[in-house]
Amino acid sequence: MNLDSYEINRDTCAVLNVGKEATKIIEGDENYLIDKKTFEVMEDSCAYYGSTYDGRLKGTRMILGSSYKLPIVIEDSNDIIFFPTNGNNNDNCSWISLKHIEKYTPYKGYTKVTFDSGKTIILKISHNSFETQLFRAMRLRQILVDRYSKEPAKKITNKEETKKQTRTKKATSSKKK
User: Fold this and answer.
1) In this structure, are residues 87 and 68 in contact, taking their beta carbons and an 8 Å threshold?
2) How many domains does the chain have?
3) Residues 11, 117: contact at Cβ < 8 Å?
4) Cα–Cα distance between 67 and 29 in angstroms, integer?
5) CA distance 163 to 168
6) DSSP structure class, residue 8
């Protein structure tokens, strides 16, 4: 099925480069074709969820300290993280969803990926490179999960609340004496 536009969602498994201006989307058991570069699909999807591709990339760069082939979080609440098969701005770059990978194996110098839907693809990326990208995306996810699970610090919202807390602390410390 050909589409005019596409936003990545929680069921998207892969955004695959199939030509200079063509992208194949794998979503569950379905395949879609769109006349856009994979990079444009990634940009549009980030914007759809209220961010920019560059902002997501900058965030990943700050978290991981890397600068090449960076995974990005498309949307936080549904855990939508994709990682690239090539450099992020490379026209031949395809993007793979972290959460839909069931298994991956070496295949004739490339990588065979099976998604949780049962669909299998062959990626023109070595098994070692694919694994490096996968682990980088897993690391990003784990850092974010750890950050999200911490209790947020209590914030003081106004001057009156600050004064009230100060008075309470003084009263408590004078009672202890």
Assistant:
1) yes
2) 1
3) no
4) 33
5) 9
6) -
Question: Can you state the percent helix, strand and coil of the chain, rounding each to 5?
Answer: 40, 30, 35
Q: Name the pairing type of β-strands 95-97 and 101-107.
A: unpaired
If you average pLDDT over each of 22-26, 73-77, 161-165, which comes out highest? 22-26
pLDDT at 169 over 90: no
CA distances from 162 to 45, 152, 171, 172 (A): 42, 18, 14, 15
Pairwise pLDDT comparison (147 vs 112), residue with the higher score: 112
3-state secondary structure labels for all residues of 106-174: EECCEEEEEECCCCEEEECCCHHHHHHHHHHHHHHHHHHHHHHHCCCCCCCCCHHHHHHHHHHHHHHHH
Q: How far apart are CA 153 and CA 35, in angstroms?
A: 46
Q: How many helices (H) and strands (E) does the chain have?
A: 4, 10
Average per-residue pLDDT for the chain: 88
The pLDDT, as a whole number, for residue 55 is: 96
Domain interval for residue 73: 2-176
Report the residue count for the chain: 177
pLDDT digit string, tens, across residues 114-125: 999 999 999 999
